[in-house]
Amino acid sequence: MRPGLPLLIPILFVTFITLGIASYKTLLVGTLFAAAFSYGVFKGEKIPWKEREFKFIKEEHLVWAFLISLLLIVLQIFMIRRVPLLDSSARHLLNPRLTALTYFLGVPSSVYLFSKGKKYSLAYPLLVALYGYRTPVLVSFLALGAAYSERRSFDLKYLVSFSLLILVGLIGIALLRGDAISSQLIRIQATTSVLDVIIDRAPWHGFYHGHLQWAGIRSYFLGGYSPRYLVARFLYVETGVSITPTLLGGMYLDFGVFSILEGFLLGIYYGMISKAESLLLKVVYYTTLAYGIVGVETGVLDLPVYVFFFIGFYALIRGKYSIRVTRVG
Predict the structure, then answer these.
(1) What global pTM score does this model have?
(2) Which of 65, 156, 238, 270 makes a 20 to 30 Å CA pair with 317?
(3) What are the pLDDT digits (tens) for 121-166?
(4) Do residues 108 and 283 lie in contact, with contact meaning Cβ atoms separated by under 8 Å?
(5) What number of other Cβ atoms are within 10 A of residue 286's Cβ?
(6) What's the rounded Cα separation, in Å, for the pair 192 and 24?
(7) Each residue of 241-271: b (16+ CB within 10 Å) or e?
(8) pLDDT tens digits for 255-286?
């Protein structure tokens, strides 16, 4: 594994809120959160654990997951008879559960197949771009880029080329959606201002006390308020609006200053799983890393993301338990 890659998350987070002209209080809390996250990464890299593969998952299962994800994209486009990438008003017609299932199946399967040298895996980010959302495209490219970087020695030209590819892709999506490029900086400032309000208004011990992050699971199965809708309610924004709170915002609304501890635990997770050697666990690492980087703006508040983190944490706990059993034995 390429060392230190998870540190991109706290670095990008501090850069994001700095560009967003965050308040002094937000910068202080955000810097403490980033520092705890970074410290967790360093600690996690030193924690030993024994890898145990998920033997019940075969390559053919991931091929089928990949094909189903592509089929779901085509099916949704056929059902609404419009292409959201070309007509942004059609995005609300997409079925959110089918869309989430597309992401859940498509990202890890395409990364796995890409790591196995299957070039047709690149069809996923190209097709999922038809949904008209930037996040799944960026997550896919980041996860594929992490997998690609593992197969080559570090070369600045590869890093620059890949960064330019992502930039061109995002600009292209923005232009097709009719967004102005200058609006992206305004978007950063608007999202940072949301974090400013959250940190300024929320009690030091949190407001939702875990209900906000739990809503990411509950709303998928039972309906009801989504996490970003609960953020909007806290801000007294009109009904029907959802708001992205940055990586820290959702955690702070739930647990206040204890969100710094949550950042530390996330850092430990990334530090430990970055040492994975088996391809399946590497795919989990690449996927959660990509979602963590994108979550700097959007937050980590969706069920598919939770599932990937759960799988990763389960693998680490099982691996740590195996070492203890071996030592006792």
Answers:
(1) 0.90
(2) 65
(3) 999 999 999 998 888 998 998 899 888 877 665 455 555 555 555 5
(4) yes
(5) 30
(6) 12
(7) eebbbbbbbbbbbbbbbebbebbbebbbbbb
(8) 999 999 999 999 999 999 999 999 999 999 99
Q: Judge whether 248 and 259 are in contact, CB under 8 Å.
A: yes
Coil, helix or strand for 147? helix
Structure tokens at 179: 């967004």
| Encoded tokens for 89 | 């008003």
89: how many CB neighbours lie within 10 A of its CB? 9
The length of the chain is: 329
Nearest CA among 223, 217, 251, 245 for reference residue 233: 245
Q: What confidence score (pLDDT) does residue 275 get?
A: 92
Contacts 24+ apart (CB under 8 A), 34-39: 34/10, 34/263, 35/10, 36/260, 36/261, 36/263, 36/264, 36/267, 37/9, 37/10, 37/13, 37/263, 37/264, 37/266, 37/267, 38/7, 38/10, 38/267, 39/264, 39/267
Burial 118-153 (b: 16+ CB within 10 A, else e): eeebebbbebbbbbbbbbbbbbbbbbbbbbbbeeee
Nearest residue to 250 (alpha-carbon basis) of 200, 220, 210, 289:
210
d(CA 309, CA 290): 12
Dihedral angle computed from the Cα positions of residues 265, 220, 75 and 300, in that order, rounded to the nearest 10 degrees:
-20
Q: Which two tokens stand for residue 21?
A: 């002209």
Whether the pLDDT of residue 2 is over 70: the answer is: no
CA–CA dist 201, 218 (Å, integer): 26
Q: What single-letter DSSP state applies at residue 236? A: T
**Burial of 43 (C-beta count, 10 Å sphere; 0-12/13-18/19+):** middle
Please give the single-letter amino acid code of residue 307.
Answer: V
